[in-house]
């Protein structure tokens, strides 16, 4: 509910503003310790990224309420946004976007970690689980860049708005595609903020969609084996449908004005 989200936002904002906040039966304030504020910024940013790789990866719609709170907090407390990006880029280098190359002397286990895989006791996580986590984080990022906290000032610019999404898309299309990962990330990104990018960039956006269809999808196909076609087929269908209709559908779960009355 919108009212519940406002409560969450106010509590986080009050904590970061140095006010006393009630939590789990005790009163806390960042002023109680010299590094209190820095610690809270760090843990909060880390938690937002965890929501992306956890909750959002399983419930796509949850990207929007989480993103709108973070967007508002980022506007008022830029330090949280900076640390959030640092956590996000470390956990999901594809959000830069960047495909890390293996450096000389790096063990395979360490390299898997750099690529974003979770490695426990030399055991690398399953590919499906890895892709799901990356998908959740990209979806959260794509939601953040288009949302603003509705009760904010609105005078200044979005601290990390759609121009960053446009840049992400352009840089992504300049990278040589990877099997599995590239198709999934592009589809997630376009499903979540394609509509917002279309409204903002118009003809330039449609030129990019045409480039994806004519030039980039064949390049993804060239590196994709027959057993990895699922996501690529969904991306193809999505781009084809959008180009035919000259319309990108609104993402599922977008927060409507009526949501804020609940």
Give the tally of β-strands. Answer: 4
- What is the class in the CATH system? Mainly Alpha
| Unreliable segments of 5+ consecutive residues | none
Q: How would the global form be characterised?
A: globular
Biggest beta-sheet profile: 2 strands, antiparallel
Radius of gyration: 20 Å
Distance between the termini: 5 Å
Task: Encode the helix/strand succession as letters.
Answer: HEEHHHHEEHHHH
Secondary-structure arrangement, i.e. CATH architecture:
Alpha Horseshoe
CATH superfamily: GLE1-like
Structural class: mainly alpha
CATH topology: Serine Threonine Protein Phosphatase 5, Tetratricopeptide repeat
Helix count? 9
**Averaging pLDDT over every residue, what do you get?**
92
Kindly state the percentage of residues in helix.
Answer: 55-70%
- What portion of residues belong to β-strands? under 5%
Number of domains: 1
Name the strands of the widest sheet in spatial order.
1-2
Subcellular location: Cytoplasm; Nucleus, Nuclear pore complex
Organism: Leptocoma aspasia
GO biological process, one term: protein transport
GO cellular component, one term: nuclear pore cytoplasmic filaments
Description:
The chain is mostly helical and 262 residues long. It has one domain (1-261): Serine Threonine Protein Phosphatase 5, Tetratricopeptide repeat (Alpha Horseshoe), CATH 1.25.40.510. 62% of the residues lie in helices and 4% in strands. It contains 9 helices and 4 strands. It has helices at 2-16, 36-58, 63-76, 78-91, 108-114, 127-144, 162-173, 181-222, 229-245, and strands spanning 21-23, 26-28, 119-120, 123-124. A hairpin with a 2-residue loop joins β1 (21-23) and β2. It is globular. The model has no long low-confidence stretch (mean pLDDT 92). It comes from Leptocoma aspasia.
């Amino acid at each position: 509910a919108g009212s519940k989200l406002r409560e969450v936002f106010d509590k986080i904002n009050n904590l970061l503003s140095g006010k006393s906040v009630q939590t789990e039966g005790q009163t806390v304030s960042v002023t109680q310790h010299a590094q209190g504020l820095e610690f809270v910024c760090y843990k909060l940013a880390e938690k937002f990224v965890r929501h992306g790789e956890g909750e959002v990866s399983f419930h796509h719609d949850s990207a929007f309420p989480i993103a709108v709170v973070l967007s508002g907090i980022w506007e008022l407390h830029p330090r949280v946004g900076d640390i959030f990006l640092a956590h996000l880029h470390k956990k999901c280098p594809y959000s830069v976007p960047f495909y890390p190359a293996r450096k000389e002397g790096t063990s395979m286990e360490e390299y898997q970690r750099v690529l974003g895989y979770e490695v426990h006791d030399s055991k690398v996580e399953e590919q499906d689980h890895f892709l799901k986590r990356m998908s959740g984080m990209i979806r959260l990022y794509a939601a953040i860049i288009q949302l603003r906290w509705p009760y904010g000032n609105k005078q200044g610019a979005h601290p990390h708005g759609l121009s960053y999404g446009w840049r992400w898309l352009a840089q992504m299309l300049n990278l040589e595609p990877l099997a599995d990962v590239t198709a999934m990330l592009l589809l997630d990104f376009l499903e979540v903020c394609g509509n917002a990018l279309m409204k903002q960039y118009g003809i330039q956006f449609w030129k990019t969609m045409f480039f994806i269809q004519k030039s980039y999808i064949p390049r993804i196909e060239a590196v994709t084996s027959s057993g990895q076609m699922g996501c690529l087929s969904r991306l193809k269908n999505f781009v084809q449908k959008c180009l035919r209709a000259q319309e990108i559908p609104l993402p599922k779960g977008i927060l409507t004005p009526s949501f804020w009355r609940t």
